[in-house]
Each structure stands twice: as structure tokens, then as C-alpha cells.
Amino acid sequence: MKPSPPSPQRTIENEEQLREVLALAEPVKTLLSLDKSCVQGVVELLESETNAISTSNDQYRRLCMKCLRALVKKYQILPSSIFLSNIECHGDYPVGGGGFSDIWKGSAGKQDVCLKVIRLHIEGDQQKRHKIYSTFCQEALLWTHLKHQNVLPFLGVNTELFPSRFCLISPWMKNGDIISFLRRFPNHDRLKSFVEIAAGLQYLHSLGIVHGDIKGVNILVDNNLQCCLADFGLAAAATESQNITSASGAIKGSLRWLAPEVYMSVQNGPEKDKCPRDVYAFACTIYEIMTGQPPFHDLLEAALIYHVLMLKARPERPTDVWCPDNVWNLVERCWAEDPQQRPRTEQVHAFLKELMSLRNVGNNAESGIVLVEQVAKTRDTLDYPVADEVDTTPTPSPILLHRSPELSPVIRNMSVQDGQSHHQPLELRQRARNQQNQTVPPNHSKRDILSGSQIPSLSRPMAPKIITTLDDHPYSSSDSATFELSRGELIREDQLGKTYIVTTTDGDTMAMITAEVPRTDASHDQQTAAQMMRNQRVLLRRLSHPNVIQCFGLVETPPTLNLFLEHLPGGSIAEALEKFGKLSDENTRYFTSQIASGLEYLHSEGILHRGLKAENILMNHEGVVKISGFSTPFWTSPEAAYNRGRGYDYKLDIWALGCVVLEMLSGTRPWAGLGESDVVLKLLSEKYTPPLPPDVVLSELAGDFMKWCLTINPHARPTAAMVRTHEYLALPLGWKYGGIS
Fold first, then answer.
1. Which comes out higher in pLDDT, residue 696 or 199?
2. Is 425 buried (19+), middle (13-18) or exposed (0-12) by CB count in 10 A?
3. Distance between CA atoms of 201 and 228, rounded to whole angstroms?
4. pLDDT over 80 at 372, yes or no
5. Where would I find the Protein kinase domain in this sequence (predicted)?
6. Residues 6 or more apart from 488 whose CB is under 8 A from it?
7. H/E element, 104
8. What DSSP character marks residue 171?
């Protein structure tokens, strides 16, 4: 007969009492019912027990780890042994970042270290803050128990260096990730890298752990030129249930590396063994390492879901790079539609080791030496300098975009870096009418004046500092003057950077988006943000319309890049919807008319927006709305989701406008309750339009307007100019905007 579990008031004070609980039928449930005051002690006992267990008792060790994970997830209490002190941080700015963390360089004694610092301060919702913190604690717990030459070592955590913030500490990898390393040293032995990545993955799977985000930027190169798996934020036990979608419905993980069953598990429930997901992603990473490009680099992410799920497509075999038959055959096996048909990681590792062995001994019997003859030997790369010894500082230069008759009337190219689609948020198109007939927009008091300003280092977001101009800066104009600006509240942080309100000495306010200028080739996130800001500045600077956000200039003074935009104190329509719920019919019509006017102007200027949604429609207190922003699948039109190398035109902005109207009238995003894969399937397979929530009743005119904008066939959709003539947008005589409440 098993011993009875302790009551919630009882404590577990020693190993013997702990082992009694672990012998119960439901030890996790029992431990979670303990009084919180004794949880720290139980965590310490479990940690000690886990470290003392020999590998021969693997089942018991896994049970201890399962209990530890459950306690850490619920209480965010970590073993005291993993906390470090006397850590120093170098520099005033992070050197990288993404998601909910910043990357800083620091030191622990004489050792350079990487500090992955959680960004809790940008999240206002307490429940979301709690969830982010819990995720970091779980990553720290899992990572601290990983010991393998092909897994990035974990040194510990620190809560003292950054007030009220939590950071994970690991050795500083001067060579960066494998993709940026290969850009600098293209003759590095790729086959050797495949073997090392497979070895690290096999180790994780042997412990029952799925990485969940295998891709090039999560594989670092150490000082011995060995690949190490990093970033365990999505790692979990292979048999544990995971929530694979965020609260917004977006799928967690990197879409271009995700196996088909990950999309389908949103609909069908989780599969029992998730290790095949990593095998699929590993094959995608092989493709990435061979080509230097992410999988499906020619597809928008919405189109990617359709091609993988419906067409069962896989990346095509590259023809202009090293890609031996045996390696490609392995890749195709790892891409099998049925997860159970994919090889296990131990098989993958053994196969790749054999290939490398055949090459190294010069054995042609199995054609191994022939297959890898274009790969440089490991000994040829051992003398490579590490990243810090190479001048990788980018040379700032203005981005010049010129319209020309050769511009295609449809989009055929896009840029994808590190798995993200980096199309310009406002995209240059063929001009709709003769440029010579256009009037020059009037000068604005702030336009261009700020384009040469220098932003000094600011260590605290709220600290006011003086900003002066640099007349010789590449972006400065001939009439530049000096302005004093004080930086105030942080109002947003997204893929582009941090957005602050700044105020001039005469009381005018602007929005300043600040991003880090990349200092090394490995700073992918900064490169992306900086390039997007440059592109946006070039496109917006020449525009002048009351319903399009105004750009005042760009300041590039390393280590920061600062984009100055018009500040609208009313926030976004999305923020208004979150605060007040759905809008009145009159306000919806009023805003829609203005948005359509802005779209008509953009289209006449040869610009396709591609990212229209309530979050990107800003407003002032008088009800004037202005367009800005980026793209996501929930507002994506069917032709954009299907596109692969084919063009699409301005009509996709009209589809998005219909989705924004739906947002305003319903108070929720289009396709509320569905994940990204479900949305794409309904758009392309079932030919559905976003459904109207059951509690929303449209007038006949509103229904007709929505149906017109959300026509599946883009050729049947109206232009922006036609939209403005629809009777639905005609407001009652004498109506005046009275705000949102």
C-alpha cells in the first residue's frame, strides 16, 4: 500500500520524505498541492536528487525533472545553485535581441559572457508578464541540466545586474551563429557542422527533450569552430502537451522550419512524440546552411502555410551550391509527411558521421568522398579569426530608391532573412500617373531638419537628453538646423524597435523609433530593423497626405538608428477597441472613409501598403486617422497567401480594409479564435471570408460594403477610389465626431 500524500500544510524536509512522495501514483499533483512556503526547499531537494542520480536510473531522473518543471512553471522558483553574482555588463546598449529579450555582452571574472535579459517592462498586462517570466524560468531550469559539447553551456541566472529583470548567462560566442559565420568563411566544413548539430540534437532527444526551434540563428559556433545548439525558450519534454499558439492565434516558433504536423496540431490536438518535429527542422537547417537562405525564402509566411499543408511542398533542391546526393536524400527523408517515417536523430547522426568518416579516410566505396569533395576540410578552417578579430562594422549609407519605367506593375521579389519576411511595409510600385504632373508637397517645419540629428547614449528610457544635428550626416539636408529634444515615455516595442515620445523645446511632440545599428554580421535582428527603418524613411519622406503618417527624418549615429515620425496622441484604433470595445457605425464609417482616402493616395503614388490593420491605423483626438504599419496573416488576402513568385496588386489592400472594418464593427480581429494555419486553409481551400461574430448585426449597406471589399476574386474587388464612393461611407447630414467611448 502506497503512503498517503502530505497535506497542503505539511512540508517535505529531507530526501526520504521526497522519495515517498515520488513513489505516489500522482507525485506532480501532490507536490503542486504543497504550501508555497515549502516549495523552495522541495525545489532544492529535487535539484540535489537529480544531480546525484546516475544515468543508469534514467526513469527516476526524468521523474525528478518532471516534478521540478511543474513546480518552476507554477511558482517561478529556481534552485539557488544556479544563481550567479559579480556579473558585469559591458556597454550602454544591447548587442542583439528578439521576442521578449535583449542580448548584452558582459563578463564573469575574466570570462566574456552573454546576458539574455528578459523584457518584462514593456508588457503592461500582469498576466502576460507572469507568463513571460515563467517561460524564462522554465528555460533556465531545462538548460542548466544540459551538458554536451554541442549544446551551448549554461552558466546560471542573475537578478541583480538589471533591476527587476532576469537574465540567463552563457559563454560569449565570438563567432556568432552558423549562418553569419558561413557568410564570412564560406569554405567552412559544412558536413562537419551537420554532424555536430545532429549530435547535439541526438543528445537532447536521448533526454526526452524536444528543442522546438532548430534553425541557423539558434546554432552558435564556439572558439573551436564547433556548432552548439542554443535558445531553449521553446524546448520541452517530448511527451508533454504544449500550447503552440499565442494568445493572438499566431503559431509559436519559426514558421519556415516548422513541420506540417505542428500546423495541424492546432486542429487535431498534439501528437504523442514531438521529436520528429526537430528532425524536420534539422533538414530545413541543412538546406539553410547549404544555400545561405531560409526554407521557402521566396514565399510570404501566409503562402508558406498553404504550400506546406495543402500542396505538401518542400524546398527545391539547390543547384548552384554544394548539395551531394546522399545528403539531399537524407534531407528528403527527414521531410517525410508522416512524422513516423522520418529517421530518428541517432540514425541521422550515425549516417552523417559515416559520410564524414568516408571522406576523411578517402574511401570512395560508398561514394562518400565524392559527395563531399567540395567541402573544405576541418583543418583548413582552424586558423580562421573569430568574429572579434574581423572588422564587420557596417558602413552607413543612405538607401536610394528610384522609380523607373522598368518597375514591374506587380511584386515579384521579396527579401527573407533568418526566417522572417522582410518586405517593405510600404512597397514601391509603378507610378499610376506621370510624375511630371505631380505637385511638390509643401515643406513642413520639422521635415528633414531632424535627418541629421545626433542621439547621445541614453541609459534610462525616461531620462531627458539633448539632441543636436550633424550637418555632414548622410541623411542631413541643406537647410538642417539644431533642435533640442527630450526623450520621454516608451509607448511601444516591436520588431522595428522601441518607440518613445520626444518633445522639442517649443512643445511639439514626435514619435521616435530607436533601433540598434548592427555592429557585427551576426546581429540579424538589428540588421533587419535598421534596414526596415531606412526603407520606411525613404518611402514616407516624400509622401504628404492628411491620412498617411508623416516622417520627419532619420538619424543614424551608431550604435543607434532613430526614425522620427508624427505622433498621434489618440493611439491606434486597435488600442481604442481594446479599451472601449467595438466602434459605433458612424465612427466606423468616418474612419473607413479616411483610410480609403489614404489608400487611394498611396496607390496613386505607386505604393502598396500590405499591412493594413487596426493596430496600424493611428488617430488624434479630433478623429483624424493616419496609416502606418506591417503585415500579418489574419488580414492577408487569398492571392497574397497563395503567391509564390507571382504578382499581386493594390486589391490586397482593399481586402485588408474590409478586415479593418470588421475589426471596428466587431471589436475583435478577423478570424477570431482561429490560428494562422486555419485561416490560410479557409482562405485558399474553402474560399471563406472572415466570418461575422454572432453578436454583430450589420445594416444592409454595411453588409454590401464588406462583401465588396472581401470578394475572393481580386479582380472583382473595388479600387480605393471606388470604395470612397460607396453609399455606406456617407455620414448623416450634420454629423460630427464626438470621440470614442
1. 199
2. buried
3. 10
4. no
5. 89-352, 485-729
6. 462, 464, 500, 501, 502, 503
7. strand 101-108
8. E
**Residue 422 buriedness (CB in 10 A; 0-12 / 13-18 / 19+):** middle
State the DSSP string of 421-467. Answer: E---SSEE---SS-GGGSPPPPP-SSTTGGGGEE----SSTT-----
Contacts of 404 (CB under 8 A, 6+ apart): none
Q: Between helices 15-22 and 39-52, what is the axis angle to 10°?
A: 90
Is-contact 61 206, C-beta < 8 A?
A: no
Using CA atoms in the order 325, 327, 328, 330, what is the torsion angle rounded to 10 degrees? 120
What share of the chain has pLDDT > 70, as a percent?
68
Q: How do strand 625-627 and strand 420-421 relate by DSSP bridges?
A: unpaired
For residue 68, what is its C-alpha cell?
Answer: 521540478
Q: Terminus-to-terminus CA distance in the chain, angstroms?
A: 64
What's residue 6's pLDDT?
A: 52
Listing DSSP states for 191-225 in one string gives HHHHHHHHHHHHHHHHTTEE-S--SGGGEEE-TTS
Enter the C-alpha cell of residue 269: 490536438
The per-residue pLDDT for 191 is: 97
Q: Which residue has the cell 518542400?
A: 314
The number of C-alpha atoms within 13 Å of 587 and in the hemisphere containing its C-beta is 24
Integer CA distances (angstroms), 673 to 607, 639, 679, in order: 32, 23, 10
Characterize the bridge pairing of strands 453-454 and 236-237: unpaired
CA distance 652 to 710: 9
Domains in the chain, CATH or no CATH each: 15-77 (no CATH), 82-137+146-172 (3.30.200.20), 174-359 (1.10.510.10), 484-567 (3.30.200.20), 571-740 (1.10.510.10)
pTM of this structure: 0.63
Q: Residues 65-113: pLDDT tens digits? A: 899 989 988 998 999 999 999 999 998 877 876 666 788 999 999 999 9
pLDDT value for 303: 75
Cell 566505396, located at residue: 365
> Side chain identity at 427, as an amino acid letter?
E
Check whether 241 has a pLDDT greater than 70.
no
Q: Which residue has the higher pLDDT, 190 or 250?
A: 190
HSE of 67, CA atoms in CB hemisphere, 13 A: 33
Best-predicted range by mean pLDDT (365-374, 431-440, 562-571): 562-571
Placement of cell 513546480 in the chain: 71
Q: What is the pLDDT of residues 665-682, one digit of tens each?
A: 999 988 887 767 677 777
